[in-house]
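Hi Y.,

Following your request, here is the sequence exactly as I used it, all 148 residues.
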Amino acid sequence: MTVKSPNPIDVHVGSRVRMRRFLVGMSQGKLAEQLGVTFQQVQKYEKGTSRISASRLQTIARVFEVPIGFFFENIANHSHVEDDLFLDAADASVLTQDGVALNKAFVRIKSAKVRRSIIDLVKMLADDDRTSMTDFSIDADLRGLRSN
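Below is the corresponding structure, written out as C-alpha cells. Let me know if you'd prefer a different format.
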C-alpha cells in the first residue's frame, strides 16, 4: 500500500497559516477554537495533510486579518511549488517559534552596526564546516564586540 503525500499547494497554504499564527502569537488551540475545530485539525491544516476549504480559509483570513491571497504568496507556478516551498528565507525564518522570537528581537535593535554584526555572526555560525567558536572569539576580539 502506498502512502499518499500531501499536495504541495496544500502544504504551502498550511505553512502560511502556521507562519501567520506564529506571527500573531496564537496557539493552535486558540485558532481551533475560533474555527470550531480541534487543535489536531489545525495541525493537519498546517502540515497540508487536510485541505482547507474555501470557506474555512476565508474564516482563517478574517481571524488573522489578512487577504486570502496571503496564503498563496510566493507560489510562482504549480510545477515548481515543491522546490520553492521553503526557499524564501523570510517565510522560513518565521516557521518556528525560535525564528519568530529572533525576528521580533532583531527588529528592536536600533543600531545598524549591531544588526550587521549579528547577521555576520549568524552567517558565520551557519557555515559550521569552516568556522569554530574559537574563530568567532578571535573575530569578536578584533571587532571589539566581546565584553569581558
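The first helix runs from residue 8 to 24.

Thanks again,
Q.
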